[in-house]
Amino acid sequence: MSPEHAPVAWWRTAVTYQVYLRSFADSDGDGVGDVGGLRDRLPYLADLGVDALWITPWYPSPMADGGYDVVDHRDIDPVFGTLAQAEALIADAHARGIRIVLDLVANHTSDRHPWFVEALAAPPGSPARGRYHFRDGRGPGGEFPPNDWTSAFGGPAWTRVKEPDGTHGQWYLHLFAPQQPDLNWDDPTVQEGFDDVVRFWFDRGVDGLRVDAAPALVKAPGLPAFDGGPAFTPATWTDSPHWDVDGVHEVFRRWRTIADGYGGDRMFVAEAVVNGPERLARYLRPGELHTAFNFDYLHAAWQARALRETIDATLAAMATVGAPATWVLSNHDETRHVTRFGRPTGAGRDGTREPADLALGTRRARAAALLMLALPGGAYLYQGEELGLPEVEDLPEHLLQDPAWERSGRTVRGRDGCRVPLPWSGPHPPFGFSPDGGRPWLPQPRDWASLTAARQRHTPGSTLLLYRAALSLRRAVPDLAGPDLTWVDGAPAVLILDRGERFRCVVNLSGEPVPLRAHGTLLLASCPLVRHELPRDTAAWLTR
Asked: Cα(215)–Cα(381) distance, rounded to whole angstroms?
């Protein structure tokens, strides 16, 4: 078969739906989402029209960080189900034409992982401690951390242990919570152990792995001091000794060799917050990872110039390594974009408690979905965005579980507001999330009654029906499968892009309506049109 007629790998154009399992659907009434709940909702996801599911960690975990503190990478936490149920889910999804991507948490383990338990019981300098970063402290009695590194969740990145004899001893590194000790990727046991993890899941038919905190895996030799500022801001770091160190690429080349030994286009996607698209492209060079999340796009402000510059920079950087771009608006670590876009600036990086105009945010979010799904490459949806869910910003403080809340001295509420369980049906909580009225692990707002999937399925113009229509057209319109994008000059603050010869997307970020007659025949609009004009903060797809 000639190259121009070879089938395109699925991951180059896939729309992948992120499942935060705890909050997706509960099948057994304990208030926590599980594998059974996800299996029950596969028909919904197939009808939505997604190509793949990314499932957040379902491994045994004490849940110190929402499952990203893993005790066993080759099993399922009993609260979520069993390994047999997981294998059945993979088979059921494949039968519906849906691929499965799992989280690979390889920078750290839980502090209850057998390796770390063994390390605590072993003496300094032992092979067991060599799997992690144990160091003597500074000062006459070793009372100060080995260096000045800070944790992503606030405070120092080091915790001191008590040795088996009860004395204060060495310190161990954790770039995240203390319950998440960082692994030492120079250790052969770590490398070989994760080779086995990758093979374990590929052997069970998993189609891809999402590499959590990809830039963090390898640290500079000697763990030198680093003044990275008071906050954990990897997007601005350069020459950091613990983030985006060149040695990480050796790990990815090792894994790519394993993936290439399997049939069916097995893939990796990197979670890599780094300093610009050029640095990101280095993770996607031939022989390394396949794709990466586009945090620059997620954090771009709702402004025509910012969006176009981010899109152009992304496409240019990805072209240098032959990788597809990806686009994303929300995930389990970010303020939901309905709320972000409802702030006065529409800024993507949202650290404010400023009140949000949710009507404005919803209008912008619907337009942003059409823009994202019109771009070349792949796209990631976060569960609930197809329902237009906003961030829940008034969760009671005693229910907050994100480690950032306590580590910040209760000044940063963290990410729980984007992780509230989904509303499926009914007029009041738990909105069909749990059977028999079980209480979800986080409370749902009562006003979500108007946002349930069941209600939106029968409401003309709902956000759910908009997403279903857009995903259906994305598959049906041939021009949207290609790599080409051409910008068309238009009015200030109006984005007009063509994909091929017949498809056009128009996004109005200006303060005035935009006439659409000259642009072609309407396929889909993010809002009702009046006199064939596109209102502000809306978008439309047209055929020419």
From this structure: 23
